[in-house]
Amino acid sequence: MLNTLGKFVARSSGRQKRNHARRRLLERSAGIGFFERMESRCMLSATGPSYDIGTPTLTDVWVDPVSGNDANTGSARTQALRTVTAAWNRIPMNQTLTATGFRINLTTGTYPESSLPNYWESRHGTPTCPIILQAVDGAGTARLPAMNLFDVRSMYLIGLRVESGGGDVLHFDASNHILLRNTTVVGLGNLATYDAPQEALKVNQSQYFYIEDCDISGAWDNAIDFVGVQYGHVVGSKIHRSGDWAMYAKGGSASLRVEGNEIYDAGTGGFTAGQGTGFEFMTSPWLHYEAYDIKVVNNIIHDTQGAGLGVNGGYNILMAYNTLYRVGSRSHVIEVVYGERSCDGNTAQCSAFLAAGGWGTSLVGVIESIPNRNVSIYNNIVYNPAGFQSSSQHFAVYGPRTPSAGSNIPSPSYADEGLQIRGNIIWNGPADHPLGLDDSRLNISQVMADNAIGTIQPQFVNAAAGDFRPTTTSTIFAATTYAIPAFTWTGLPARPSVPVGILLNAVPIDRSGTLRSSPSTAGAYAAQGSVAVRPTTPTLLLPTAGNTTATLRWTAPVSNGGSPITDYIVERSTNGGTSWTQIVRPVSTLTSYVATGLTNGTAYVFRVIAVNAVGSSLPSATSSPVTPASVPSAAVLLSVVAGNTTATLRWTAPVSNGGSPITDYIVKRSINGGTTWTRIDSTVSTLTSHVATGLTNGTAYVFKVIAVNAVGISLPSATSSPVTPASVPSAAVLLSVVAGNTTATLTWSAPVTNGGSPITDYIVKRSTNGGTTWTRIARPVSTLTSYVATGLINGTAYVFKVIAVNAVGISLPSATSSPVRPALPV
Description:
By secondary structure, this protein is mainly beta. Among the domains are: 1-31 and 244-531, no CATH class; 539-611, Immunoglobulins (Immunoglobulin-like); 636-708, Immunoglobulin-like (Sandwich), CATH 2.60.40.10; 733-806, Immunoglobulins (Immunoglobulin-like, Sandwich), CATH 2.60.40.10. The chain has five helices and 57 strands. The strands form eleven sheets. It has a 19-stranded parallel sheet that branches.
């Protein structure tokens, strides 16, 4: 214990004192507040508690580490982003989500560290609008490096594989309503040389934390380390490969259920409620015991060098119906000892917690012992086969201690206050192996009478291969077990007042989902090995919609009930699950299926049922709705009208949107008759017209339009006929006007620009009143730049102007000429 606490104190100046942890300690008391004590979304399934995600409102964001592009919309697999950072940044920071949650769908691949946020921080989902990060192609298909998360709420990690060496693999601080499901967390490296993560999963000062069907391993300290975690569960998971305890729940952790897990390959021990904590890292009001209201049931714990189970400073701790195998080779099999409390440097916070009534010290370097109260160890099996035994004794239960004055800890304090050890089968070492209770206040004769210690050797189907179901002839069925009494919520300090925990100690089912009687057979399995039951529920992942199809993937049940899975029933619904239709498909044990013949544009939900020789499982949770769709049909380009450096396009929407609303139209232009195309940049719009600007007058353009929906892009429309943007010409320049006998000869130069359209004519006008009024001279259409005006009156003063004409219109007039007077020749 001291060695373990020493490691804890030594590392406190590093990771545990990071800036975010400091911030968290200052903010927690006024931050989230108390949520409902009993989480309404925590449901009891056939194999234990499970978190009900429900049918939240979600916006899908897709990420593909290979072919994605952060310039994409992210709204579909075909529009996937490339980095998780880009997807994460779509979620507003420090805003509670009420309109929509976000589901980040990670496609198959390895996501490099550079593609992830440096720190996942301050994203606040809600139960109806959560944040989901999932491997959309199935559990383990999306591989991520280490993740550090701070102040995240209602966030669910589903099907991920997170792995790294050094530090912590997955780390949460000051977060709440977190779900890890079907997720693998792996610490890489050599545990013996400490060249590996310290913890695989580290959770500090968080509430409502749920771990289901996960595999968490690889740390020189703990596979899972909970410090100040209140409310939640750890169920159906593998917790293994650690140098110290496989899992701690300490530092004021409370109201947790640890059920149906396999805990193995650990150094100091399997699971312990409580241990040792720096006082300043705790959370008010849970400031006395290291652990409160922890229920550890139906677990398999094997191959631990130290104790399989421990209580180190706990209050109302239940450890019942667990099976321990090959445990305690360097110590004992079960321990009920003191936790430890230190002040690791923040003396001001330690002093504040002391003043509030907490137990501990404000002196750095002093360690206070934290006692236990109300520990119930009922109906467990401890089986160490021949050649394997605990090194010293069966139990470790410490005697009374006297705490320091001013620590607020009752004096004397006891590790065995309210300790009950009943109904356990212990086969461990020789008949005279020490019991280990000499320092306790327990009645040793009563303990021997209430437990089968060294008198019943369990028989399992194949313990060496991991099958810990009792054989049909196992002697454990003859052992006496006991109904587990409820706890009381008494004997706690008045300050600060701790919320009442769950007092009933019901364990209604065994590890396989078989109903237990009360009392029931000892150990994790109540049923005989030859008796199969229905499988547990499979887990349906997010379906992926296609063109009249939906691709479903799911994970097999945690337990097949002792009989192989023979088939999966797939059902669909078009009314949100009010009624269901079974999909006709060949018998198959594959965990994926493509549902065909669906109607594009119709929302479907699905569920999956596992089948074995006994019967069918309960249905999986209903999937989120998916809507099959295809790309739209082509738009019809109606007209293109050229303007001055512009072209106005009009088209009709596609006859079919493919079952997914049109979200945009792409407009493209070509200046080489359609050999190559250039996309016209425009804002996203579903309007069926567009004015293309910035065109070059005099250049012929053709156009086409492409419709867009969430699935992708349509075929292009037919290419338009060519149009040439143009304007009126610039003004002609009137060079000279020479008078003759009733005539005037005009000469001018063509406009500098014809406006992009050839000059087709020139209009010539004359005036006899200095330009006040003008008369157009009737003349044939001509592009010549000279003209002889006839029929003039000799002696009358005339002025002239010229106007250029093209297909668009007429230019401004030339400057008015100087006056000329026609006359007879001299």
